[in-house]
Amino acid sequence: MKPKAILKVGLDVVMTALFLLLMAYHVTGNRLHEWLGMFLFIIFILHNVLNLNWYKRLFKGRYAAMRIFNTLVNALLMIAMLGTMVSGIMISRAVFGFLDMSVDLFLWRKLHMAFNSWLFLFMAVHLGFHWGMVMKGFTRMIMKGFSRITVTKSSKSTFFLRITATAFFGYGVYAFMFRRFWVDLFMLADYPFFNFGESAAYFFIDYLAIIAMFVCLAYYLSKLARN
After folding, report:
1. Are 173 and 213 in contact (CB under 8 A)?
2. Whole-number Å distance between alpha carbons of 164 and 109
3. CA atoms within 13 A on the CB side of 78
4. Which is it for the CA torsion 117, 204, 138, 66, positive or negative?
5. Closest CA to 84 of 117, 129, 45
6. Rounded-to-integer distance, Cα 221 and Cα 126, Å
7. Domain residue limits, the chain
8. Of 53, 42, 34, 44, whose CA–CA distance to 12 is shortest?
9. Does residue 123 contact residue 208 with C-beta atoms inside 8 Å?
């Protein structure tokens, strides 16, 4: 596996972990939350630099339905990232606190929560569209590390993986409903709610399951569209 491909897979893993941490504001606290957000934005820029070929091919070739949808999700992901960053700067008290801007904090906090939630959602869908490539990259890395081990694909292992994916998807649906994820997506609450007494492990399991749910949806819908 080429170093550039390894770097891409590594960045995907780091970004996913950062997304989870950024959703857990009540776990990290404000200062760490802001610095993690800055770190994520830097990695996001690096991710786009490493994928400049995608931008070069934007106006080339035929646009089938799947390519149109993938391009739309990428565009919305970019908008959500920029919206999250701008709104984060507006309400910053640590990283950009020196700017001392007079803004409507109530409005910008709601916008920040909405942009951040949409960013989380589009990130998971984007990951789902490329899940086959991500798994292929991990497989190659594992095969390189254990070159003497022969890995075979059986119907039993495929069935087990599908059962596991179904379980994650089902729990993801439950977590999505339990967490009332749509409230932040559509700015339906006046104030963000954080359960500071909640176990961090329980929170991360729920949001990891929500990622898994959207990854599964995007992955199997993309396979269906290609077929």
Report:
1. yes
2. 37
3. 10
4. negative
5. 117
6. 12
7. 3-226
8. 44
9. no
Q: In which residue are the tokens 């994916």 written?
A: 165
Say which residues have a Cβ less than 8 Å from residue 213's Cβ, sequence separation at least 6: 124, 168, 169, 172, 173, 175, 176
Helix, strand, coil tally for the chain in percent (to 5): 80, 0, 20
Instruction: Please state the pTM of the whole predicted model.
Output: 0.87
DSSP label of 191:
S
Q: Count Cβ atoms below 10 Å from residue 20 Cβ, excluding itself.
A: 17
Other CB atoms closer than 10 Å to residue 12's CB: what's the count?
19
Q: What is the pLDDT along the chain (227 residues), one digit of tens a residue?
A: 677 777 887 888 899 899 999 999 999 999 999 999 999 999 999 999 999 999 999 999 998 888 899 999 999 999 999 999 999 999 999 999 888 787 888 899 999 999 999 999 999 999 999 887 766 666 665 556 555 445 455 566 677 878 888 898 999 999 999 999 999 999 998 777 788 889 999 999 999 999 999 999 999 888 888 77
**What is the CA 30 to chain-centroid distance, rounded?**
20
CB 28 within 8 Å of CB 21: yes
Instruction: Output the DSSP codes for 35-103.
Output: HHHHHHHHHHHHHHHHTHHHHHTTTSS---HHHHHHHHHHHHHHHHHHHHHHHHHHH-SSSSGGG----
